[in-house]
Amino acid sequence: MSTKAKHTPVPWSMALRIKQRHETVDSYFFGPKKSSEQWLGDVSGKTNAEAAANAEFIVLACNAHEDVVKALEGILEWHDKPPFDPDGVSMLPAAIAAVRAALAKARGE
Question: Max Cα separation, the chain?
């Protein structure tokens, strides 16, 4: 029996890492806390703006992941109901709302 390791809990955040003397572009830490002991990694880019965008992209994707999965599962649950099933019809508005919320979270809105 195999056990799947769980990822570090969300929400994650990001913070600017102090540049070393040889570095010319910013680098950002990302992870669950604003403590250097909890950062999971760092990311950079070709420019300071790209470095910040890369870190934000990772954090948004990780923080939205569970909501996106749940929203997609809700749509599949609705889809798998027989046509015109009363439960299926009543599920659709909540499933669509969950998709909209998950997309907004993934986009950082």
Answer: 66
Q: How far apart are CA 91 and CA 88, in angstroms?
A: 5
Task: Output the pLDDT for position 4.
Answer: 85
Map out the domains of the chain as residue ranges: 13-107
* DSSP for 33-62, written as a single string: SSSTTT--EEE--SSHHHHHHHHHHHHHHH
Render pLDDT for 55-75 as a digit per residue (tens, 0 to 9).
Answer: 999 999 999 999 999 999 999
C-alpha span between 58 and 32 (Å, rounded): 12
